[in-house]
What we know:
By secondary structure, the chain is α+β, with helices and mostly antiparallel strands. The chain has 1 helix and 3 strands. It has a domain of about 50 residues. It is flat.
Amino acid sequence: MSSALLIPDHCEYCGGSDFVEKTVEKMHKHKGRYYFFRGVPVVVCRSCGERYWPGPVLRQITRQIQESQKTEENLTVPVLQLEAR
């Protein structure tokens, strides 16, 4: 995976033009199951925080899920229903 990510001209959400490359954690849903990835490169708008996931990164995530026979670890995550107020 190349370290140089494609930077958008402007943010589709706020119109900002200042971006930063980061490495983050990402929860990804694939065929009804959730997968948690660490060390995922992303481009983030400095104005609003909108995240831009490069196509090659998303393809690698999908490929790793499809080829994965064993996960690094399993997490237990509490699930809550938001109460209507």
